[in-house]
Amino acid sequence: MPAEPPVEQSYDTRIALRNEPVQARSTARLATLLDAAAAIVDEVGYERLTTAMVSERAGASIGTVYRYFPDRIALLQALGARNLERVLARVSDEVLDPRHPDWTSALEAAFGALVEAFRTEPGFRGLRVGDVIDLRPTPNDRPYNSLVSDHILDGLIARFGLADSAELRLAFETVIEVSDALAARAFARNPKGDEPFLAASRDIAYGILAPHFGEITRPA
Questions:
Q1: Rounded to an integer, what distance in angstroms lies between the CA atom of residue 24 and that of residue 164?
Q2: Quick count: other Cβ atoms within 10 Å of Cβ 138?
Q3: Mean pLDDT over each residue of the chain, to the nearest integer
Q4: How far apart are CA 62 and CA 82, in angstroms?
Q5: 12 to each of 82, 96, 139, how far by Cα in Å?
Q6: Contact, 124 vs 83, CB < 8 A?
Q7: Are 189 and 121 in contact (CB under 8 A)?
Q8: Contacts 24+ apart (CB under 8 A), 1-4
Q9: Predicted confidence (pLDDT) per residue in 48-72, tens digit
Q10: How large is the average pLDDT for residues 197-208?
Q11: What's the predicted TM-score (pTM) here?
């Protein structure tokens, strides 16, 4: 088996804050604001979130909110960026975990990390990585789901010595888009996720990828 090089975080998930926090107290205050925003997104959706709601939930003045964020969109972008950073870290851990000896088990675990984010990461079900509202520039002007796709695929290629190609990139990005849409549907009314939609997502993913990756060793 090829060596397992680390999957480096190569995507800048920072957003343009009014004041970049440099002290621990400022960093903690920013985290409190984002935590408050995440809780509100879970309760009423990102569409109805206001900066006034966030300031009240966080126990902070509205001036404190505007000290860091010029408007509600910047606040939501920051929450989406944090979601992206956290999810990519969890996915990388699964891809590199030696308990997953082949590409199917590693991919299954990576998708599992994404599903778990829907279940447990505050604000993720409604906002995910922020594509639904995103105005941030991305590398090559690509959607953030494309960056998630590249990140997971780069890890699989590095670990298992898979042959990279434009066709594989397209197939894998298609899998990510389908999986994201079906996961959103699975969690639309069920906080634990409707398993039939999640199972359909996995079946579609393996069907698309098997011609590129090789034999599926996923348990029946």
A1: 42
A2: 14
A3: 83
A4: 21
A5: 11, 21, 9
A6: yes
A7: no
A8: 1/101, 1/160, 2/158, 2/159, 2/160, 2/161, 4/96, 4/98, 4/158, 4/159
A9: 999 999 999 999 999 999 999 999 9
A10: 92
A11: 0.79
Amino acid (1-letter code) at residue 206: Y
Q: How far apart are alpha carbons 32 and 177 in whole angstroms?
A: 31
Separation of alpha carbons 124 and 154, rounded Å:
23
Distance CA 213, CA 195 (A): 25
Q: What is the number of other CB atoms lying within 10 angstroms of the CB of residue 6?
A: 9
The pair of three-digit structure tokens given for residue 8, joined into one six-digit string: 């480096």
Amino acid (one-letter) located at 20:
E
Separation in Å, CA 92 to CA 4, 75, 142, 147, 203: 11, 26, 21, 13, 22
Task: Give the per-residue pLDDT at 94.
Answer: 92
CA distance 44 to 39: 9
pLDDT score at 218: 55
Q: For the chain, how long is the longest CA-to-CA vector?
A: 57
Q: Tell me which amino acid residue 153 is.
A: L
